Amino acid sequence: MKHSTPSPDHIIVLRIGLPQPNFPILENHLWEVSDPEHHRYGKYLSKEEVEELVAPHPDSLNAVNEWLAMHGLGEDDVVRSPAQDWVTIKVPVSLVEKMLDTTYHVWKHEKSGDYLVRTTSYSLPKGLHEHVDVIQPTTMFA
């Protein structure tokens, strides 16, 4: 149930998932190393090899970096996963609302009484659509 409007300076930890264009290759590796009949059975990939396969395309990194910079966010504001396929930023609601062209609300779970800060819709600049797979927390209430 919609409860209230969050304070503009309420901090949201925003996670941005970038596309992993080589994920099908990783999935194929997983099937091969798991199949006792395959010659690659048991020959697992290293952490570095997996990170290389899930890394986003450089164009996606550049597009997201430019978008963040347009909103005053630089490398010091960003935490990246080892493969750079996830970007995490801690930003006030007021900035997230500008970045995502949305309005956040505080929602209260009727049975548990728990509160969440979420939105019911958001948008990204058209040029980012192919470079971002997911942004959370936004519309997911789970």
UniProtKB/TrEMBL annotation:
PANTHER family documented for this protein: PROTEASE S8 TRIPEPTIDYL PEPTIDASE I CLN2, TRIPEPTIDYL-PEPTIDASE 1
GO biological process per UniProt: proteolysis
An example molecular function term from Gene Ontology annotations: endopeptidase activity
Protein name per Swiss-Prot or TrEMBL: Peptidase S53 activation domain-containing protein
InterPro entries given in the database record: S53_propep (IPR015366), Tripeptidyl-peptidase_I (IPR050819)
Domain Peptidase S53 activation residue range list: 1-141
Domain of life from the UniProt record: Eukaryota
Matches recorded under Pfam families: Pro-kuma_activ
Organism, as annotated: Amanita thiersii Skay4041
